[in-house]
Structure formats: structure tokens, C-alpha cells
Amino acid sequence: xxxxxxxxxxxxxxxxxxxxxxxxxxxxxxxxxxxxxxxxxxxxxxxxxxxxxxxxxxxxxxxxxxxxxxxxxxxxxxxxxxxxxxxxxxxxxxxxxxxxxxxxxxxxxxxxxxxxxxxxxxxxxxxxxxxxxxxxxxxxxxxxxxxxxxxxxxxxxxxxxxxxxxxxxxxxxxxxxxxxxxxxxxxxxxxxxxxxxxxxxxxxxxxxxxxxxxxxxxxxxxxxxxxxxxxxxxxxxxxxxxxxxxxxxxxxxxxxxxxxxxxxxxxxxxxxxx
Length: 274
What we know:
This protein is an alpha/beta fold. It is built from 6 helices and 14 strands. The protein has helices at about 20-35, 55-60, 70-80, 170-175, 190-205, 255-265; strands at about 5-15, 40-45, 85-95, 100-105, 115-120, 125, 130-135, 145-150, 155-160, 180-185, 210-215, 230-235, 240-245, 250-255. A 6-stranded mixed sheet has the order 5-4-3-2-1-14. Strands 8-9-10-11-12-13 form a 6-stranded mixed sheet, covered by helices on one side. A two-stranded antiparallel ribbon has the order 6-7. A hairpin with a 4-residue loop joins strand 6 and strand 7 (about 130-135).
């Protein structure tokens, strides 16, 4: 088999509910559709399995790493569709029984677990009408996440980050050079309309890599409104795909040639001094 220098990827967008099984059914249906469209690696959004009526709902469905119905279902999705699956975030047990880790898990085409990242930066935001404080129910992770796969004899590397992490460029520098940053999110409508696309494109441009963002996008039963706009952005900062709102998926192709072209014409990563 000849070495392929491209990889077709897809990002799923959801409007998740408080119903765990309903959300898993939706994820399965959209994964199947993206697979039929030719995707070889598929990403789910943050909180894809549950957007509870209250923040503590996710603590109720937390699982032990490596065991539990959510993880079993994700492994089956990957194996049944013969795709790499990067699963948004699920709640895993933490040291504090009243909190969870907000964890991204990756599975290979055999349904085996091949990667994990626990969200490091926890969102806090307050206005007269909105308040979010993730630290009240989530324990912060401490280690940056990198996922490496080999597909058709070609190695691919992915940086793993989640939602609020997007605002901290030092995290992306710490991960080093990757082919693509994967960013599942549930950005609020308020912050998303002003900052989402700008930050995603900045991360792509400054790190000279693709960015694939998988978002929540709509009004949820808990009355929270998320921004949506799942996107694929190329290493030059061009938006290749964008789903403004509602459930569905976007797809596109990662190209080693494009990565090499941008990095050779403008070798900014090689010019770094700090």
C-alpha cells in the first residue's frame, strides 16, 4: 500500500440534552453519516453525552476510566464504523467525589483506547444574566494531550485541547508542532460571537497547522445557548468548513503537502527565539 499524504476528518456538531441515551443515539447517527461521507477520523463536541439541567448532573453519570456504558458505546462506534474517534468530553471520576474530570478520549479503528486529555483550563464567566463556574463541579487536569496515529503508512499528530483552553496560547506552544489541533467545545453564544472564530484562526496561523473544532450549537433544554460554528481551518488561517448552528457535521481533508508548503514559505516556527 502506498503512503497517503491526506487524511479525511469530520467534526460533529450537536445540541445535547439532559438525556444520556438520546445523546448517544444522536452521536451514533451522526458518526455513521460522517463515516459514509468518507471520514477516517471523527470528533465529537464537548459535553456531547449530556448537557444537564444543572451542573451537578454530570457528576451523577461519571465513569471510572476504562469502564462504563459511555466508554463502551464510544469503543463500539469506532470499531463498528472502522474510524478513529475523538470523543468530545465525558465525565470521569476525580479525587473529589463531588467533582469530575472533563475528559477527551480517543479510540482506534479496533475500538481500543489510544489517547486521553483532561481539560486543564476551567471556564469562569459572569454577567448580570449569565454565570458559569466550571471549577465548582470539575477538577482541572494537569498534562497537555497529544494523539498520534498511523493511517495508510502515514503518521499524523494531533494536539488535544478543550473549549476554554483555546484562550491560552502557551498550552499550544507546549504541545510543539502537530498536524492538527482538535478542539471540542461548548462555547457560550455571548463569548462565541465575538471571540470563537478569531481565536481558532489565530491558533491555526501561529502554530501553522490545521484546527478542527467540534461544537455544541443551539438552545439547550437548560436554556443555555451555545455558539456552534464547528470549523475546519487550514494552516494559513483559511476557514475550509463551517456549520453555523444545529446538529450535523463538517468534513475536510488534512494535507501534508499544505502543511509543508506553509511551513517552508514562512518558516515562523523555525524563527522562534523564546
